[in-house]
Specification:
- The structure holds two protein chains of two kinds.
- By secondary structure, chain A is α/β, with parallel strands linked by helices.
- Chain A has nine helices and ten strands.
- Chain A has a six-stranded mixed beta sheet, sandwiched between helices.
- In chain A, helix 3 crosses helix 4 and helix 5 packs parallel to helix 6.
- Chain B is mainly alpha-helical.
- In chain B, helix 2 packs antiparallel against helix 3 and helix 6 runs antiparallel to helix 7.
- The radius of gyration of chain B is 21 Å and the shape is flat.
- Classes of the chains: A alpha/beta, B mainly alpha.
- Chains A and B meet through helix 2, strand 6, helix 3 and helix 5 of A and helix 6 and helix 7 of B.
């Protein structure tokens, strides 16, 4: 469970990236965050696993306060998988090495054990035959599935997705979304920054609309799409839903 | 052309070449080590590391090497009361000077790796040391290898400046043979060929590496 309590983040006093954000994400739920670029979605995601520091408020992940000085941030992060817009696969490693790096170095698994597990996960995301290639030999959709596999190899409690399909060609979006829908079906706790409203309709327990560092509106999928209360939300939805 | 002057004095000049190589290798190792430390300091967010390292780098990049050698060789006795021998003075000046150049190559190499790579590494629970060791440095090293090899070639040439404090490296010995035998044309052509042979081999390696790097990661 993720509890976000009144967090604010700013780079200079005048420029607030996040402004008094609160919310709770229950175990096994999928929350979709949408909003125009620069609205603070990605920053919020990075605050959850401590990649970005906020100045005010508190985030508690499974009972552990992210920014508390006594928190073992590496341990906390190892339980939170993250997937990025531009994949961020390690180009000097094979797919297999990408996936086994953290399990071997952080979880101290043996190489054989980690590789066995990696193959299982690659099977699950549908690309076991790519295991010994370098990332540059893969298509965008395959790269992103490797990135998801890499995160899953740590057996995380929570998965964070930062615009996972924004850099993909249209015909590759589905193969990535299918993997994510599958994950949601298996009750993975997920926070997904995306504009894929089809995905949101299908799996999101809650949709959050952000603008200018604030949460403008949030609601369950059906209500959010059919009866948006806020004018800004309606405007945004009308633009992206065509 | 009388090439016997070269064959007759070959052993003596080859001895100088050995010294040139020793000097180059020690300078590369020392310069690289000090360069890594300076580069890390320059990338640090801590002011007490960043400012001294930045000052050091700008300071030595703003001076001709020959001046650094003179300073060290002639000023050390004034300050400490003890004179340095030529070899030590040369090694120290080269290391101190080249480190500034290595530092900038290394810094640029590390900064050439996109921020997202460390984000990905940190997000999986790696520590900053593990992130540097397994994710950033292998890629950075690959990016900076051509520049490092080029710098090594420059160092090899720069060692000839040791002659100003009487260090008997290769060029100085050729010069001494010439003083005795008065065969400037043959001797300096020979010296040029030797430098060319080693330096162009180095440059060729650097180019190969560059092409290889652009072609693939394997």
């Amino acid at each position: 469970m993720i509890e976000i309590k009144n967090i604010s983040l700013w780079y200079e006093k005048s420029h607030k990236v996040l402004d008094d954000i609160s919310g709770t994400i229950q175990c096994g739920q999928t929350v979709v965050i949408c909003g125009p670029s620069g609205s603070g979605k990605s920053s919020l995601l990075r605050c959850i696993n401590g990649l970005e520091r906020f100045q005010k408020g508190e985030i508690i992940v499974d009972g552990i306060s992210v920014q508390h000085p006594d928190t073992d941030i590496h341990k906390l992060r190892s339980n939170i998988g993250m997937v990025f817009q531009h994949f961020e696969l390690y180009p000097h490693m094979t797919v297999m090495q990408n996936i086994t790096l953290a399990p071997v170095r952080v979880r101290k698994k043996s190489k054989t054990e980690a590789e066995k597990k990696a193959l299982e996960i690659l099977e699950r995301v549908g690309i076991p035959e790519q295991a010994f290639k370098h990332p540059e030999a893969l298509s965008g959709g395959q790269k992103q599935r490797v990135a998801i596999a890499r995160a899953l190899a740590m057996e995380p409690q929570i998965m964070l997705f930062d615009e996972p399909t924004s850099a993909l060609d249209p015909e590759m979006i589905k193969e990535v979304l299918d993997v994510m829908i599958d994950l949601a079906g298996q009750k993975m706790t997920m926070v997904v920054v995306t504009h894929e409203m089809v995905f949101a309709r299908k799996v999101a327990h809650e949709i959050v609309f952000m603008d200018n560092g604030r949460i403008i509106e949030k609601g369950a999928g059906h209500n959010f799409f059919n009866h948006p209360k806020n004018k800004r939300t309606r405007q945004f939805l009308s633009r992206i839903l065509i | 052309m009388d090439l016997t002057v070269i064959t007759n004095n070959f052993k003596f000049m080859a001895g100088g070449l050995v010294l040139t190589f020793q000097l180059s290798l020690i300078t590369m190792a020392g310069g690289l080590l000090l360069g890594i430390i300076l580069a890390l300091a320059r990338l640090s967010s801590k002011h007490w590391l960043y400012y001294p390292a930045t000052f050091y780098i700008h300071f030595f990049r703003g001076l001709p090497l020959i001046l650094v050698i003179f300073w060290l060789y002639f000023l050390t006795p004034v300050i400490t009361g003890k004179s340095l021998n030529e070899f030590h003075a040369a090694v120290i000046s080269f290391v101190v000077f080249e480190a500034a150049y290595f530092a900038e190559i290394i810094r640029a190499g590390i900064q050439s790796i996109p921020h997202g790579q460390s984000m990905a590494a940190y997000s999986s629970g790696l520590t900053s040391f593990q992130c540097a060791r397994h994710v950033i440095l292998p890629q950075a090293l690959r990016n900076m290898t051509p520049a490092l090899v080029t710098q090594a070639v420059v160092i090899f040439q720069d060692t000839s400046l040791g002659y100003v404090i009487g260090l008997r490296e290769f060029l100085r010995r050729v010069n001494l043979v010439d003083a005795r035998e008065a065969r400037s044309v043959e001797l300096y052509l020979f010296a040029g060929l030797i430098y060319l042979a080693f330096c162009s081999t180095g440059s060729l390696c650097s180019q190969r590496l560059e092409n290889h790097r652009q072609r693939n990661w394997i």
